[in-house]
């Protein structure tokens, strides 16, 4: 049976993550697993080490009290995590998903995503985490790490949910982009929706041919689309096309270059996620 995994935290994106995951699960008639990951420090209730600043006479009693407080904190964090999952499950059930399970996990979100992707068709995660700076448009610190670490498609949810009716594929001729086209051509979720295939930037004869072949494949799958070519840097040009044509979902290959190259010249994927205000379906 198909399964969708939704990874939530305490950020404002948790609701839209559940809604988008529920949208896809309903279309696939799939089960939905909602996951909340507690960092090891949170789960243990570990606080600052104050033993060096405590006098000899009071050290034992105070350390015992600190240990007790840490244990209470860890218990409260666990209870809070379960409450978050209970609310998310109720929201998913109200949206019409019948098979919903929850998982409270201690550890790291990247390791959890890797563990759960084996029997998942899709992983859904928020664009920004609970510690993100909205004013500076900071992305969630784990977003790139999760996308790079898994082989299954990752749907990056926008802040507010809206039903997906109009899609765009940002095509660059790469292996990940071809993987995205093949997935959409076979998809039970997006069949019959309005779709554009857009290539931005300099277009070589090879990329033009690949884009035209991709459009033929999508037409054979029932999509009424042609390969379109626009000028400008890919991140800015695609973001403009998304906004002007009122797209509800952007589909693209992700992080095609190494982290070192991205540190030197920046990442087109990161810029696209930051500048586009809609959900983005990423393929590696």
SSE layout:
Elements: E1 3-8, H1 14-28, E2 31-38, H2 40-44, H3 56-94, E3 100-106, H4 109-116, E4 122-126, H5 143-149, E5 154-157, E6 166-170, H6 175-186, E7 194-200, H7 205-220, E8 227-230, H8 234-245, E9 249-253, H9 259-265, H10 268-275, E10 280-283
Parallel strand pairs: 1-2, 1-4, 2-3, 4-5, 6-7, 6-9, 7-8, 9-10
Antiparallel strand pairs: 5-10
Helix pairs in contact: 1-3, 6-7, 8-10
* Tally of helical segments: 10
- What is the structural class? alpha/beta
Unreliable runs = 133-138, 258-266
* Distance between the amino and carboxyl termini: 23 Å
Shape: elongated
Strand order of the largest sheet: 3-2-1-4-5-10-9-6-7-8
As a percent range, the share of helical residues equals 40-55%
Number of strands: 10
Please, what is the average pLDDT?
87
Largest sheet: 10 strands, mixed
Percent of residues in beta strands: 15-25%
Gyration radius, rounded: 22 Å
Helix-strand string: EHEHHEHEHEEHEHEHEHHE
Account of the 3D structure:
It is a single chain. By secondary structure, the chain is an alpha/beta fold. Helices cover 45% and strands 19% of the residues. The chain is built from ten helices and ten strands. A ten-stranded mixed β-sheet has the order 3-2-1-4-5-10-9-6-7-8, sandwiched between helices. α7 links the parallel β7 and β8. α8 runs parallel beside α10. About 5% of the residues have low confidence.
């Amino acid at each position: 049976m198909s399964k969708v995994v939704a990874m939530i935290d305490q950020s404002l994106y948790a609701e839209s993550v559940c809604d988008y995951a529920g949208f896809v699960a309903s279309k696939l008639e799939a089960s939905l697993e909602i996951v909340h990951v507690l960092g090891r420090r949170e789960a243990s209730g570990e606080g600052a080490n104050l033993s060096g600043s405590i006098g000899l006479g009071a050290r034992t009693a105070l350390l015992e009290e600190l240990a007790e407080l840490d244990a209470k904190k860890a218990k409260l964090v666990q209870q809070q995590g379960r409450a978050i999952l209970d609310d998310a499950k109720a929201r998913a059930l109200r949206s019409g998903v019948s098979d919903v399970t929850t998982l409270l996990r201690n550890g790291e979100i990247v390791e959890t995503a890797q563990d759960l992707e084996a029997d998942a068709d899709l992983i859904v995660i928020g664009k920004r985490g609970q510690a993100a700076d909205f004013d500076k448009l900071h992305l969630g610190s784990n977003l790139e790490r999760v996308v790079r670490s898994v082989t299954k498609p990752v749907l990056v949810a926008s802040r507010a949910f809206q039903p997906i009716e109009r899609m765009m594929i940002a095509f660059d001729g790469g292996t990940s982009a071809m993987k995205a086209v093949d997935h959409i051509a076979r998809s039970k979720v997006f069949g019959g929706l309005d779709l554009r295939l857009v290539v931005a930037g300099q277009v070589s004869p090879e990329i033009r041919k690949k884009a035209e072949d991709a459009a033929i494949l999508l037409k054979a799958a029932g999509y009424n689309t042609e390969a379109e070519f626009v000028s400008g840097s890919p991140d800015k040009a695609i973001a403009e096309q998304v906004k002007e044509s009122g797209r509800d979902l952007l589909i693209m290959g992700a992080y095609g270059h190494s982290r070192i190259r991205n540190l030197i010249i920046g990442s087109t994927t990161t810029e696209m996620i930051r500048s586009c205000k809609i959900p983005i379906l990423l393929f590696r």
